[in-house]
Amino acid sequence: MRVLLDDRIDILWVIAATTLVFVMQAGFACVETGFVRAKNSINVAVKNMIDFCVAGACFWLFGYGLAFGSSWGGWIGTNEFAFQHDTLREGVFFLFMLMFCGTATTIVSGAVAERMRYGSYVILSLLMSGFIYPPFVHWAWGGMPNEPTGWLGRLGFVDFAGSTVVHSVGGWMALAAILVLKPRLGRFAGTTTGFTGSNLALSTLGVFLLWFGWFGFNGGSALALTDRVPYIVVNTVVGGCVGGLTAALVSMALFRQTRVELLLNGVLAGLVSVTAGCNALPIAAAALVGSIGGGLSIVGAHLLDRLKIDDAVGAVPVHLFAGIWGTVAVALFGDAQFLPHGDNRLYQALIQLLGIAAAGLWAFGGGLLLVLLVNRVMPLRVSEDAERLGLNIAEHGARTAIGDLISAMESHRRNGDFRTGVPVEPESDVELIARQYNRVAARIDDEIGARAAAIVELARQRRMADEASQAKSAFLANMSHELRTPLNAIIGFADLLGHEPFGPIGDERYRDYANAIKTGGNHLLSLVNDLLDLAKIEAGRFDVQLAEWDLPTLIGEVAELLDREATSKGVVLNAEVDDGLRVVTDHRALRQILFNLIGNAIKFTAAGGQVRVVARGVTAGVELTIVDTGCGMNTQDIKRALEPFVQLEQAPEIARTGTGLGLAVSRALVDMLGGRLQIASEPGVGTRITITLPAHPLPAAA
Fold it and tell me: Which CATH class is domain 431-538?
């Protein structure tokens, strides 16, 4: 491919083409920066800059000599290192080829974006531009156009502007790198199939810049302003147009919408496809080749996704797959006069396939070995924390508005302090987000303050309630104690009067009065005992003493005590207890429970009614049932009846004779015994209270 430019117009054209190819570097930077997430955009741009610097320096020092120096057996150049041009023509040719080297090198940066260390990428760029790219250039393009010195060129391999030499070689190296790097975090997690680019408008501008630069890339490869140059440029434009159109149509068919990434990569794939044969393809053939290339970019991207190979910008489908297709298409559709083997298309196709295979073995095989070696010496991939933070900050310490916003929001999350809002950068792309977030944060801070104040107030109210409850319990205990002493004395003296131990009283009415005093005193003592029991239970000082008791005897004692009251009311009291039934319980507590519940049943059952006490053994232990035919309760009344000091309205003249503690104390005592109390009742029908006591109460219940 190396020639001596004989006309200053030709030199001027190649210089102009070189300038256009250099513009492609800006295009690559825009495409890749827009395709990645905002947190990595600066890193991608910096890598595009540094890889061109590295490629230029390496190509000058030894790359040009390896590619275009005097050939050693068709395999490698052996001179012209640290290039010093003797003529204007040689200088222009060197500069044009340097741009091609920069293009091949920068293809890798997009594929490995968002997870590769900056330092490792610099080493990879050096290896690509200095040791992978130049030898293959020598194989295909070394020597004069009609006197090739590279072994592929001598065989008749055709790649006019670099579908394989530039694009496929870059694509093979990119594939090797991303296989070693592995996918980005979350790239193939769950249903996620891709990340959305941060600025696809910028990527679109980048494609236009690349397309514009391609005029020089393909047109300048003629190395002279010949009559074929307009033809070459037309094929370039048509290939890109049809490639983009095909990608858009496939996108509509698959997704019912034009996916921007697919459209842009379709254009680029169409351009890559026609690059190898842009001087030889008829325009219609260029359109067909570009169309197939655009479709291959979508098929290739889908294939990589299926294989879980993560290419951040689609560089492999665009440059490798389309480059391979374009190289084969030269033999299929190229004008025979531009093919070394003329009409022998099969032989030409075999030569083209040989060149493709050689590129794969050298660029992918050799590149993979170099990448693995570098990875052992200097890990290619950044840490997970750095990848999550973003390479803009992790690799370069670069600040962005979105990065600052994320950092401030993360600080809020860690500290839980929303009093200080996030910084708002005027006229930035996140200004509205930051302002709205600050409004939300202020509302959250207000809510937190209000809830904190409510918690303080609730704590104060609870403390006051606890103090009041303690005072009430202490009052009940003290009052119960103070009342029990004189009540016991009154009951004792009334009992003495009733038995007349010191002789007859005389009038029978005195004896009746004494019995009335005793009855009233016993009633008052029962009420005081309820109050004292409630106070002890609430204070946690009720001492449960477990022992085994004969249940028929215990129920019989209570029934005997209450039978007189039932008889006086005209209520039938029956007890049905299994013989020999025993229970491990606290005798005093169970007696109090039975006395309260049977007494309540008698009290709220009218004359002619019935109260039944049934006790039987069950799997869980012992089941006691007290059934009456009294006034009954509805669901709401049952809940209220279980509260202390609550008296129901069904029979107010009866309810007022007690304190409303019977059910509350009974339920508390049942709970302390490890049992369960259930109430079923229906107004006008009666009430059924079921108590289940465990056969062997837990020690904690005691």
Answer: mainly alpha
